[in-house]
Write a structure and sequence with these properties.
about 325 residues; alpha+beta; Deoxyribonuclease I, Chain A; seven-stranded mixed β-sheet; six-stranded mixed β-sheet; disordered N terminus
Length: about 325
């Protein structure tokens, strides 16, 4: 029997819904649960959160799946929208904890920098209030470079479970492949060195993380092209002189642009930080891991790319002790 046009439309709508739902699961890669005695830190640029195309439900699902104690976030546009998102995450985690007889569940709060620059893109921290105490929160305009850019955000982090204690800076440096953009990123590294030098006495352990936009620069008059890989090598050298090391990422991309993966988001830790595991790796999850950083047809980008972010979460687990 032939289907009526109205019934056919309803069927096609249902199939489209099922396809979207399946895509949300299939083009992300789940994060393994946090192990006992560990403390999880993540970094995630949640593209212009929220923009009209943002799937808030899917974003909440990813945040909950990270199972992180502290998440350094970038590109937050609306603090009220972030608060509503975390209310949704907290409700979901409470239901999950009750069903699994787990107590207490994670309960996320957040703090943002006092300014998002002229572009209104804020960096901040989402943190489990049942597991983390934040103190000494300070917006660092010294790492802003120009009024158009975002200042960084400093905080002291103390684990309420095992006592891990460190200072952290989340940053989002200038994006772009013009000489001007690249110069701002180099100036940021020089300013970061000064900022760290004046704060070493407060706490020996530092973590610096976020979207460092290590994309190099295009060829311009009198300047040869610098690749993203070359800029990352410069970052590594400068980090070492600051007493930091950049953790290698696996897989080796954290963002997609025009169907190609690139490594823009980084986690750097103090060279002597004993709570960092041996041979540490910053693990990249989401669709970046699912596609293995391979080129993707721009007409068939993952659902999360289109409706959540062009960046993927980056995660590191530390020993939840204070050995300093």
């Amino acid at each position: 029997m032939a289907r009526s046009p109205r019934r056919l439309c309803r069927t096609l709508a249902l199939l489209a819904t099922l396809f979207v739902t399946s895509s949300a699961v299939l083009n992300g890669q789940s994060v393994p649960p946090l192990q006992s005695g560990q403390f999880r830190i993540a970094s995630w640029n949640i593209r212009f959160f929220p923009e009209p195309s943002t799937d808030v439900d899917r974003t909440a699902e990813i945040l909950a799946d990270l199972d992180a104690d502290l998440i350094a976030v970038q590109e937050i546009v609306d603090a009220d929208a972030l608060a509503a998102l975390l209310n949704q995450v907290n409700s979901h985690l409470t239901e999950r904890a009750v069903a699994s007889d787990l107590t207490p569940p994670r309960h996320y709060g957040f703090v943002l920098a006092k300014s998002g620059g002229h572009g209104g893109l804020f960096v901040g921290y989402v943190y489990d209030q049942n597991a983390v105490r934040l103190s000494g929160v300070e917006t660092l305009t010294s790492l802003q470079m120009t009024p158009d850019l975002r200042p960084a955000l400093l905080a002291r982090v103390t684990s309420l479970r095992g006592g891990l204690d460190f200072q952290v800076i989340v940053t989002h440096t200038d994006s772009g492949t013009k000489i001007r953009d690249y110069t701002h990123r180099m100036e940021f590294l020089d300013s970061l060195a000064v900022e760290l030098e004046r704060r070493w006495e407060d706490e020996a352990d530092f973590i610096v993380l976020g979207d460092l936009n290590t994309m190099g620069h295009a060829e311009e008059e009198h300047y040869r092209r610098v690749s993203g890989e070359e800029e990352i090598a410069i970052l590594d050298r400068k980090a070492w002189t600051m007493g930091l090391r950049r953790l290698p990422s696996s897989p080796s991309c954290t963002e997609y642009y025009l169907g190609r993966g690139s490594l823009l988001d980084h986690i750097m830790v103090t060279l002597a930080m004993r709570e960092v595991p041996p041979n540490p790796v910053a693990r990249v999850f989401g669709y970046c891991a699912a596609v293995g950083c391979q080129p993707v047809d721009t007409d068939n980008m993952p659902y999360d790319y289109a409706h959540v972010s062009d960046h993927c979460p980056v995660v590191i687990d530390l020993a939840d002790v204070d050995w300093d």
